[in-house]
Amino acid sequence: MISANWAGNYEYLSSGLATPGSVEELQEIVARSPRVKALGSRHSFNDVADTAGIQVSLNGLPRTVTIDEAARTVTVNGGGKYGEFVEELADAGWAIHNLASLPHISVAGAIATGTHGSGDRNGSLGTAVAALDLVTATGEITRAKRGDPDFDGLVVSLGALGVVSSVSLDIEPSFDVRQDVFENLAWPQLLAHFDELTSSAYSVSAFTDWGDDGTSQVWLKSRIDSDVSAATRSELFGATRATSQRHPLPGGPSEWTTEQGGVSGPWWKRLAHFKLEFTPSNGAELQTEYLVPREHATGAIEAMRRLGPLMAPLLFISELRTMAADELWLSPSFGHDSLGLHFTWKQDAAVHELLPALDEALAPFAARPHWGKLFATDVSRLDSLYPRLPDFRRLAGRLDPNGKFRNDFLDHTIFAG
Ligand SMILES: Cc1cc2nc3c(=O)[nH]c(=O)nc-3n(C[C@H](O)[C@H](O)[C@H](O)COP(=O)(O)OP(=O)(O)OC[C@H]3O[C@@H](n4cnc5c(N)ncnc54)[C@H](O)[C@@H]3O)c2cc1C
To answer: Which of 46, 106, 193, 340 has the fewest CB neighbours in a 10 Å radius?
Structure first.
């Protein structure tokens, strides 16, 4: 019986956990339960996956990985985690476009919350969804594919529309990536060269504690087939090349991180920050993230620098990433190329006291919170932040008229308006 999320900061209040062994059994559970909610790999930091009824885990379903070379998709079942199929996909000569910082999360849970990696031209992970099967409130399966009416509302669903029993993701020919780390990029340089910096590799992440010194590390993940400028750089806008393997946290265990130092390797061994064979931490952390439209990037960074002294005692590290605009209704990067401002906090109750100040400081920049992390957003802002929110409510009303998949999280955010 699972009672808490991965970080251990949230105890589920559900009345139990069902683990069906087949899709048919899943359908029966959903059909007969008055309240039910899909549970993924439990990597969210809030109550988004909780329910007053039962949670259902898809971990008991037979693992399936089906590569359709003609359609250029890989199909995995709803409980599948990225780490469970990436190697097989690469061995067959294929890749997906991006990964989050760790490969241990479930595909269905990741897409349900708008999870993303980094890269100016990389959409959030949900943009790779070509089709999905959804067990709706009646227990019937609806199959939807890109281009169908309402498809863009079905992907970032917060589990509010049903249980995703299978997901098909776009694939492309496999590619190799090298990872180069640069240290000590000063704020004036980062701000003056922001666009050049974030476009300097396929995926760019900058780590900072918001202190005066700027970013401690910048990780460039470059595709060998198209983009090897990192190879020739001895410096990056004044930042110097790291001389050995690094962890984002100064002094953290560098053997946990994916290989750096410009050594090329398969996409799945470089695009995530943390190796599949290591659980990146024991979970003793909290996370918050806001996405701001790219045009507000420098304003939002300056605002966070002003909050730096307040955040410092509670912060492990922050990460800046960029992502391409998408059309998924509830995606935090809907309609805008975006900058993600991520915060990994210590597990300290004072974090919750800080969150309203963080939200207030970022609100002028149309900041959208990551649905799976901690935030204190004034929900009256959500309607203006998400123009398709009324459409999502209508879709939820149609697929789940009795609110079987609703929970406190949804009632206090999506359905509060
Ligand atoms: C260490 C760590 C690193 C992280 N790194 C990143 C990162 O790099 N980028 C980023 O954007 N986020 C990141 N996250 C956040 C994480 O990606 C999200 O919280 C994501 O939702 C986790 O997926 P999950 O399977 O654990 O979902 P859960 O927490 O189990 O559930 C989240 C939501 O998904 C729904 N859901 C799950 N499975 C299904 C299903 N089969 N059908 C329908 N709905 C479903 C649940 O009902 C719930 O609403 C990180 C989290 C951790 C703990």
So the answer is: 193
